[in-house]
Design a protein that fits this description.
Layout lengths: L1 E5 L4 H12 L4 E5 L9 H4 L9 E4 L2 E4 L1 H11 L10 H29 L7 H21 L14 H9 L13 H11 L2 H6 L3 H16 L2
Parallel strand pairs: 1-2
Antiparallel strand pairs: 1-3, 3-4
């Protein structure tokens, strides 16, 4: 039995949740409230680094979302979510890693703006917008006439990048200058796995409250 420990507002855990749904796997979903539950001894036995997501499969515990995705692909290869062609595999991996290493830190800086919370540092916001634009332009260049990154079928690039880029929808960081990426985003947003895992208004309010608390602490 697979158990996913997650938080609805986390793109890191949502990407695993979506992958489980896209693969049609049976699993138990356990929410870890990020107000302190991640530090409880029973969770630290699963992930001593007190981060989500964490996944337990038949007694085997995994941490770090990209490692979890690779594990799921290797153990449950149908439907395949990694292409076999070397170039296409390289595209998928680049999208995953650029999302985690470049885009996600930039959007973390932009979070107050995206969530409508005043008080952000203007210089840092401008720098984050430049980095975000660089990533979006790069992703636009990686998309061809196929509906997904490097494939006619959904790959691991979609839950990794899509759960981060979705935070830009409705913000002043528009996707209008990236028509291929905008179309890609529309396609994945219509998939049942995305709709089922969409954060609720209550989830959004919770992350706003957490963000205000962090900003108040300096």
């Amino acid at each position: 039995m697979i158990t996913l420990y997650h938080a609805p507002v986390s793109p890191n855990s949502r990407r695993v949740w979506i992958t489980l749904l896209e693969k049609g796997l049976e699993f138990e979903l356990v929410e870890v409230k990020l107000n302190g539950e991640q530090f409880k001894p029973e969770f630290l036995q699963i992930n001593p680094f007190h981060h989500i997501p964490a996944l337990v499969d038949d007694g085997f515990s995994l941490v770090e979302s990209l490692a979890i995705l690779d594990y799921l692909e290797a153990k449950y290869p149908t439907p395949a979510m990694l292409p076999s062609d070397a170039k296409d595999l390289g595209i998928v991996r680049m999208v995953e890693l650029v999302t985690v290493n470049e885009l996600l830190p930039a959007l973390t800086t932009l979070a107050p703006v995206l969530l409508g919370i005043p008080g952000a540092n203007p210089e840092k916001i401008d720098q984050a917008k430049v980095k975000t634009s660089t990533v979006l332009k790069y992703f636009e260049s990686l998309l061809d006439n196929r509906p997904f990154f490097g494939s006619d079928n959904i790959t691991l690039a979609e839950p990794v990048a899509g759960t981060v880029i979705s935070w830009l929808i409705g913000s002043d960081v528009s996707l209008n200058d990236y028509p291929k990426l905008s179309g890609w985003c529309d396609r994945i947003q219509k998939r049942p796995a995305w709709q089922k895992t969409e954060p609720t208004p209550e989830d959004i309010e919770m992350i706003k409250s957490m963000m205000r608390g962090r900003m108040a602490q300096g």
